[in-house]
Amino acid sequence: MVAQLLGLAFLFLPTSLVTFTTYAQPTVEINQNWEVVYQDTRVYGVVGKAVILECGPTLPDMYIWSFTKPGTEAIRAVVYDLGKGTRIQNLAKTLGKLTVISKSAAVSIEKLPLAAHGLFTCQAFYDIDKEPKVYYYYVHLTVRVPVSKPYLLMSDASPVEGSTMWMRCNLENGTGPIQYLWQHETRSGNISTFAQGNTSVINVTDVNRNLTGWYRCVASNAVNSESSNRLWLDTIFGPDIPQIDVTPYSITERGYSALERETVSLLCQAHSNPASQYVWFYNNSQVYTGPQFTITKILRMHTGDYACLAQNTYLNTRSKKTISLTVYYPPDGSPTCSVEPALNHTSLRLLCSWPGGFPSPSLYWTGDLRQEGRDGADTGEQTNPLTNTAILLSTEGLTSNNTLFTCMGTHLALKQSTQCSTRTYIPPAEPVCFAYVTNNQQYLMLSCSWDGGAPKALVWWEGPGGQGKGGEENSNILILRYGTARSGKPYTCHAKHPLLVQTKTCRLTLEAPVLLTQRRVVSVYEGSDVELSCNLRANYLPVNDIIWFNNQGVDVQGTSKYTLLRTSAWANLTVKDTHEIQDSGEYRCSTSNAVGGTEINVTLVVKRHPMPPNATLVKVVYISRQRNEVELEWQVENEEEKGWTGFILEHVWLSERPGRRGSSNDSKEDTEERIGPPVWYRNIIQDPEVRSHTISRLTPTATYQFRIIPVNHRTLGHPSAAKTPAEPRYNVYPAVIGAAIGGMLFAAILTALLLVFIIRNRNNNPRLHDMLFGLQHSQSRENINFPEDEVVGGSEGGIEEIGGLASPGATMALPRASSPLTTSPLSATPTTSQAPPPGDDNEPVSVTITVKATGS
Ligand SMILES: *[C@@H]1O[C@H](CO)[C@@H](O)[C@H](O)[C@H]1NC(C)=O
Ligand SMILES: *[C@@H]1O[C@H](CO)[C@@H](O)[C@H](O)[C@H]1NC(C)=O
Ligand SMILES: *[C@@H]1O[C@H](CO)[C@@H](O)[C@H](O)[C@H]1NC(C)=O
Ligand SMILES: *[C@@H]1O[C@H](CO)[C@@H](O)[C@H](O)[C@H]1NC(C)=O
Ligand SMILES: *[C@@H]1O[C@H](CO)[C@@H](O)[C@H](O)[C@H]1NC(C)=O
Ligand SMILES: *[C@@H]1O[C@H](CO)[C@@H](O)[C@H](O)[C@H]1NC(C)=O
Ligand SMILES: *[C@@H]1O[C@H](CO)[C@@H](O)[C@H](O)[C@H]1NC(C)=O
Ligand SMILES: *[C@@H]1O[C@H](CO)[C@@H](O)[C@H](O)[C@H]1NC(C)=O
Ligand SMILES: *[C@@H]1O[C@H](CO)[C@@H](O)[C@H](O)[C@H]1NC(C)=O
Ligand SMILES: *[C@@H]1O[C@H](CO)[C@@H](O)[C@H](O)[C@H]1NC(C)=O
Ligand SMILES: *[C@@H]1O[C@H](CO)[C@@H](O)[C@H](O)[C@H]1NC(C)=O
Ligand SMILES: *[C@@H]1O[C@H](CO)[C@@H](O)[C@H](O)[C@H]1NC(C)=O
Fold this sequence. Notes:
mainly beta, seven-stranded mixed beta sheet, rod-shaped, transmembrane helix, Ig_sub2, IgSF_CEA-related, immunoglobulin domain
């Protein structure tokens, strides 16, 4: 490339008419030796213009102007003046319009032709009269041609960037040397010199886009300077690597970022001539054509690579730029806080987590974090500070039980920060220890729990002989094989909470159970129910069920003979309807636990009631001649003994009176009475005070015998001697009728009273009730349906320990006529209240009474 500057190029004024004449300084020397003086000058003329050729400063006496054409030797005269006037030669016509300037020897040439170019010689002669002097003035006339208007040629007016081209400044006329200057005018009109030099062609290698613009060349020579018309040079280039502008602008180390739901605009620009065409790609698939790709409400799924492809359709070239755009979005919800123990439950670790979101949110803890600030290196701990933050707090400064810690979460896609908080507190109660046994008695479980703290407390077991269990949170169960537990040695549960410096403990000591009974020997009268009690001395660790074995050594569980009431602490065995032979004996109550077993014997003595005193019938007489009612009176020996509770009046049919027999074959009783052994019919009298009674509905034709038996509960006394009723005294008929009616009424009332009495006292004397109504061949048959007989309970005071000092059999259980409800549990003496149980009158009782009367 030509790049030589010629600063003065523009000083030429091409249109001005200038004569370039250089005069040599006249150096006339007086040469006394007759020597001819030679002087040289150079004169520059421009074709078509005028020029003056001087011949000495003064007018010589004679002169001759000659012309020597360049390249020839010949010197030919043009004009001369030998004192007789100027004589212009023909040659002068070829040299332009030549005239001699008056009063001088100088010649003027107008409209200088190119032919005038050559050496003009003026031979001048001075002082011819005296001492002539000869001068030769050589005038070298140079005729110059002004440069014509150049025109610019380009090898390629639309060169591709990087290629090579040339520009030529063509010129028809002009005398050299000619200087060329190339001007570049930008699109905006700024003109600058692109190149200059003495060659008309410039090579432009590696054309670039900056060359685009107007070009003209200026050709200059000594005469003038001419400028060509301008030519447009259009450099074809591009596209360059595109530039992508993201609005709003936010750049990170990963690339561009935008917040979700923003409107994001991607502008692509790639310099190119002709202008680029743009195509947008998202993750390599085309999404848009055009320079500006706008995504309204950008979403997180729009994260990815965005590529702009710029194409120069003329060159069929393309370029591409890819940016990565990340859409930031906040995590859902709010952070979650938790607190957990650290450093073996001596410190707290606060955990704050807020997963999701991009980039991860910033989390930091606020609250009573003095510890961290004071001792940051030891207690501050950061793990992945973006989604999670955890700090370690020593609890030494945290004296308050209930402290609130708050974790603040901020995310650049959220205007407001959100938070969560957590509290730390000590469990409200003390640790609780208890023990239990698995169903199959394989394992003993020692459980310890200390619930309700935040964070959870650490609970561990330490037992004798290395039996123990490492820490667990909130609760811990030490499992021991059933037989391996140690007796008498404490099992200690330790519980540690970070907020408490001290470790809490609770202890379990396993001991074999010890059983107690209130009475080791229990005596009871036959027929009553008796309760045998058995209870644990203390609240032992899990003890198996207390088991009662009866006097046969059989487990009483599930038998109807016995009622077993039990809790974990006691078991009461009720032996129902005691029998002297069957139920007396050693009863055993037994239990065991993981470290041992125990049992205790209770001796039950069932006694018969003592025989009631003898009674004697003192009066047995028919009330009337109808012989269907007999009045009886009796006496009791040893009335002071009071050992009876009632009487049984019995009568037996001995025989029928003759004459009445055949006609009375319709009576069923008659038939029955004649077959089988004699049967005693019974009338029960419940009142021990009664001494008389009337039996009615007898068969008048029959012969009876009567006797009385005193009754004491279940024990029957000796029957009295049997007596046949005596005939009544002779009575007047109305009296007999009245007595008969009275007797019937009396009997009816008695029967009713008896029933009421029995019903009311069935609880007090259930066995009597059963016995009396359950007798076979009763003249009266009652079906009395009661609710199941109540269990006769009650207790006598005085706890007696096995192996203790109390003498066995010191107390005796007596049959109780009273309700257990009215029995004082601590009373040492049996109560014999006859009062019916409260509310008994209201009990629903269904009574069906069938009384078969013998009519006559
Ligand atoms: C160049 O000179 C020739 C002869 O003097 C003349 O005829 C011609 O017109 C000139 N050309 C230009 C462009 O001036
Ligand atoms: C023109 O070019 C000159 C120097 O090259 C520069 O200083 C000037 O700012 C340019 N002017 C314009 C309008 O480009
Ligand atoms: C052109 O100019 C260079 C120097 O710039 C010179 O060396 C060279 O001789 C010149 N050529 C002509 C033809 O005048
Ligand atoms: C321009 O390039 C041509 C051919 O490539 C060469 O002949 C010529 O000398 C070069 N001229 C200049 C000034 O470099
Ligand atoms: C184009 O011109 C500009 C300033 O005028 C310049 O910074 C740039 O480097 C030029 N480019 C080339 C390819 O020469
Ligand atoms: C686009 O590419 C990014 C980065 O490779 C990826 O995370 C995103 O899931 C892609 N999106 C689709 C729609 O394929
Ligand atoms: C944890 O603490 C308990 C009691 O405070 C201690 O016995 C145990 O050795 C400690 N463990 C560690 C790993 O410090
Ligand atoms: C600690 O605070 C909790 C909650 O307020 C409360 O239930 C507990 O009883 C307190 N414990 C102590 C030891 O103050
Ligand atoms: C069982 O026996 C004990 C001791 O005699 C007595 O305290 C307790 O009340 C009895 N329980 C029942 C339900 O009778
Ligand atoms: C309990 O009675 C049984 C027999 O019934 C006897 O073998 C046992 O030794 C007695 N136990 C005690 C502690 O008296
Ligand atoms: C009661 O009567 C029986 C038989 O009749 C007789 O053996 C017994 O001795 C009598 N008892 C008294 C105390 O009289
Ligand atoms: C009494 O009954 C028995 C058997 O039922 C019968 O053989 C007999 O003839 C009867 N006697 C009279 C007098 O009806």
